[in-house]
Each structure stands twice: as structure tokens, then as C-alpha cells.
Recover the amino acids of this structure.
């Protein structure tokens, strides 16, 4: 078996072990929101587990399912009535709910299930539907921009000016 096949097998095994642990968890609400978003995105979009285990998904990922529904509304081509539809799903929109909505979109992008343009569209639609939350959306997008820049620096696509100077001195 090639290295890629072994890596995939190991990854599947790790994720399946995690799912088995989650099924036995007595209080999944104690798990951090960001980790729940990651588990949800990988389980649904990466493994199709919401089809295989719909009751489990509904019981564990109720919050993430709601945020995914909100994401779908915001990413649709027609935003007519979006605010009312979203309020019917989440109840109230505040900084916390903005973070949860955006976190799910960013998590999908991080794992490669949507692209950067989709994240931008999500934020623009959220600002249009909830202009009073514009600052919260902008705050999250600043975080996203910083994350993307740091990743590009780590990947060598963007050079840190200080590091560039350091490398130049090392060569001389």
C-alpha cells in the first residue's frame, strides 16, 4: 500500500475512533464550539456521516446544523426575506451567533469544502441581512485575513520582511 493510502487509512481510523468516543459522550456541550464545527464539517462534508447517522448528527450537532442552514440562506442568490428566515432558525443575532455562522464557513474553507470567494460572499450577505452586526462580521473577517496571511507566510508564498532580511544576512 502506498504512503497516501496508509495516511488515508490512519486518518479514517482516527476519525472513526473520535466518532465512537462522541457516541459515548454524556455531555457533548462541553466540547469547544470550534472543535464541534470541525467535527461537523468533516463528518458531514468529508465522510457523509449525516446520512448514515442522522439521529446522532441531530442530537450532537443541533447548533452546527442551524448554522449550516443559515450559511445556505446567506449563500443563496436571493436574499429576500433572509433576515426573517435566519431569525426563525437562530432566534436572535448577536456577536456570538455571528461568530458561529462565520466559524462554520471558515471551517468549511479551511478543510477545502468551499473556496475563499464563498467566505467573502457569506460575510457580505451577513452584512446586508444584518447591517447592525457589520462590526462583528468585520472583526471576524479581520481574523480570517490574518489567518490567511500567516498561512501564506508559513507556506512560503509571502515573505515576512524581517525574515527576508535575516535570510539575506545569512547568505552574505
Amino acid at each position: 500500500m502506498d504512503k497516501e493510502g496508509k495516511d488515508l487509512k490512519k486518518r479514517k481510523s482516527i476519525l472513526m475512533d473520535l466518532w465512537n468516543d462522541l457516541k459515548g459522550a454524556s455531555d457533548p456541550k462541553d466540547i469547544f464550539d470550534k472543535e464541534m464545527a470541525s467535527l461537523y464539517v468533516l463528518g458531514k462534508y468529508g465522510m457523509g456521516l449525516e446520512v448514515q447517522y442522522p439521529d446522532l448528527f441531530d442530537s450532537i450537532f443541533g447548533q452546527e446544523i442551524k448554522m449550516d442552514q443559515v450559511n445556505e440562506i446567506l449563500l443563496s442568490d436571493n436574499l429576500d426575506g433572509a433576515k426573517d428566515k435566519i431569525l426563525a432558525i437562530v432566534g436572535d443575532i448577536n456577536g456570538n451567533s455571528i461568530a458561529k455562522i462565520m466559524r462554520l464557513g471558515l471551517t468549511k474553507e479551511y478543510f477545502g469544502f468551499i473556496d475563499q470567494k464563498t467566505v467573502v460572499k457569506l460575510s457580505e450577505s451577513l452584512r446586508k441581512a444584518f447591517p447592525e452586526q457589520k462590526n462583528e462580521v468585520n472583526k471576524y473577517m479581520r481574523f480570517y485575513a490574518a489567518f490567511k496571511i500567516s498561512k501564506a507566510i508559513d507556506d512560503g508564498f509571502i515573505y515576512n520582511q524581517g525574515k527576508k532580511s535575516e535570510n539575506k544576512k545569512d547568505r552574505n
Observations:
- The mean pLDDT is 84.
